[in-house]
Amino acid sequence: MRALSGIKPTGPLHLGNYFGAMKQHLELQAAHEGFYFIANYHSLTTVKDADYLRQLTRDVAIDYLTMGLDPQRVHLFRQSDVPEVTELTWILATVTGKGLLDRATTYKDFVAKEIVPNMGVYCYPLLMAADILIYRSDVVPVGKDQLQHIEFTQDMAGFFNQTFRPVFKRPEARLNNAPVVPGIDGQKMSKSYGNTIELIGDAKAVKKKIMSIKTDSTPVEDPKNPETCSVFALLKLLAEPEEIAEWEQRYRKGGTGYGTAKQRLFELYEQHFGCRRATRAQWAARPDDVEDILRSAGRRARAVAQELMAEVRDACGIVRATE
Ligand code: ADP
Ligand code: TRP
């Protein structure tokens, strides 16, 4: 069983990315062969600063290693170390109807917001399908928001197989049941809303953010609704079940202020993530080792991709001089 997933380096990783994506990737490493890549070509649709993109790419690798990704078990690599994905993107484009891409929710979101998307945004599902198909992936662990992309990938594999001959395996999504993690303003936590809590952030800055999580103005002594409270939603992700039950009671009973819950949330953050600051600093101080990990995994991934691409070219009649 080969599991594959990608994470876009478009900003510092946050708790939404951890609970929605990274946690599952780390859990799967024990049971599956893992291919996890840093989707830097994907980031180019929005990130237009070369130094920043280089830095974000490195930071995603450092964050994965810090949180326990084992490079002996899992291939952690850069998307761009396998340039064949861009070739496959083109080939998939030639068997895919434009109507399919018109239906992509990411593209439709841009249109709804009246932002004219670049062609990268429009073609994003093709590149994502190429990412998945090129490694003959069996399962793709993603959040619900990515399900449409996986369905498109299955469609595109079918279009190619029917047009030429069966080359691609049908990958399956593996949906996590992670809830949508709220940001400090109560909306979905997202880099684009500026409401994130960083995965391994500076203690002072994180504390300030946690203390500023938006709550309603129920007085301390009154009962509070845990279901509509972002602080409680975050506590639920970090605390043990008995403690969650206790907090639920305290909310419903009244007499506990949001400030107390926030204080506890910060402590839990420190236990889960803050405690890894030193490990992160150690990885950050070893850029050559990080580079070696990415490079050697990239080589292995590329070998798989090259073998698949030879079959794809043969199936559709593309001739290339042998290297
Ligand atoms: P962002 O919205 O910050 O740009 P991305 O779109 O890059 O995040 O998301 C990367 C992964 O993290 C996706 O698989 C997505 O499902 C997950 N993710 C992002 N934000 C959240 C959130 N608030 N709650 C749950 N999962 C999330
Ligand atoms: N589109 C995914 C996201 O926004 C990232 C991604 C790119 C991906 N290529 C992939 C995820 C291939 C799974 C498989 O989170």
Short description:
With 323 residues, the chain is mainly alpha-helical.
Structure explained in plain terms:
Helix content is 54%, strand content 8%. It is built from 14 helices and five strands. Strands 1-2-3 form a three-stranded parallel beta sheet. Strands 4-5 form a two-stranded parallel sheet. It is globular. 37% of the residues are buried. The mean pLDDT is 96.
Question: How are the elements arranged and paired?
Answer:
Elements (H helix, E strand, L loop, with lengths): L1 E6 L7 H14 L4 E6 L1 H4 L6 H17 L7 E5 L5 H10 L4 H5 L2 H8 L6 H15 L5 E4 L4 H17 L8 E4 L27 H9 L18 H9 L2 H13 L4 H15 L4 H8 L2 H30 L7
Parallel strand pairs: 1-2, 2-3, 4-5
The structure holds adenosine-5'-diphosphate (ADP) and tryptophan.
Adenosine-5'-diphosphate binds next to helix 1.
What is the rounded Rg? 22 Å
Q: Report the oligomer.
A: single chain
Shape: globular
The profile of the biggest β sheet is:
3 strands, parallel
Hetero ligands:
adenosine-5'-diphosphate, tryptophan
Number of domains: 2
Arithmetic mean pLDDT: 96
Q: Any idea what the CATH superfamily of the largest domain is called?
A: HUPs
Residues in helices, as a percent range: 40-55%
Features:
single chain, 323 residues, mainly alpha, Rossmann fold, Tyrosyl-Transfer RNA Synthetase, 2 domains, 3-stranded parallel β-sheet, two-stranded parallel ribbon, 5 strands, 54% helix, binds adenosine-5'-diphosphate, binds tryptophan
